[in-house]
Amino acid sequence: MKTALILLLLCMAFGACASKPANSTVPGAPAAPIKDGDYKGSGTVTKINNEAGSIEMDHGDIPGLMPAMRMEFYVSDKALLDGIGVGDSVDFTILYKGGTEKITKLVKK
Ligand SMILES: [Cu+2]
């Protein structure tokens, strides 16, 4: 327990956890800006909020936008949620524009 903590602290202190060279990026610097446009992905539905018009998913990697994670998205039209249920596997398209993202297409697999 104590050893693990010490190793963690050492790791943080020397930046050994990061695989990048020490001089490549400033810690906390923003990543490359994301371009406005459509991004396609797929995932498994974990929660749906019909009133808010949102859907939470365990989604896979969305190239150019974000890595795999569980998160909630808003849909451009609540009708997209019709017929979609928790546990469904879905394909989706996200429109990323000006720092916001919205699902514009949602299809059950
Ligand atoms: Cu995400």
Task: Produce the secondary structure layout.
Layout: H1 2-14, E1 37-49, E2 54-59, E3 69-75, E4 89-97, E5 100-108
Parallel strand pairs: 3-5
Antiparallel strand pairs: 1-2, 1-4, 2-3, 4-5
CATH class of one domain: Mainly Beta
Our Rg estimate from Cα atoms comes to 18 Å
List low-confidence stretches. none
Binned, the helix content reads: 10-25%
The count of β-strands is: 5
Q: Alpha-carbon distance between the termini?
A: 45 Å
Can you tell me the CATH topology of one domain?
A: OB fold (Dihydrolipoamide Acetyltransferase, E2P)
Q: Let me know the average pLDDT.
A: 85
How would you name the CATH homologous superfamily of one domain? Copper binding periplasmic protein CusF
Count the helices. How many?
Answer: 1
Give the CA-based shape. globular
Bound compounds, please? copper (II) ion
Q: What letter string, H or E per element, gives the SSE order?
A: HEEEEE
Main sheet specs: 5 strands, mixed, barrel
What fraction strand? 35-45%
- Determine the structural class based on helices, strands and strand pairing: mainly beta
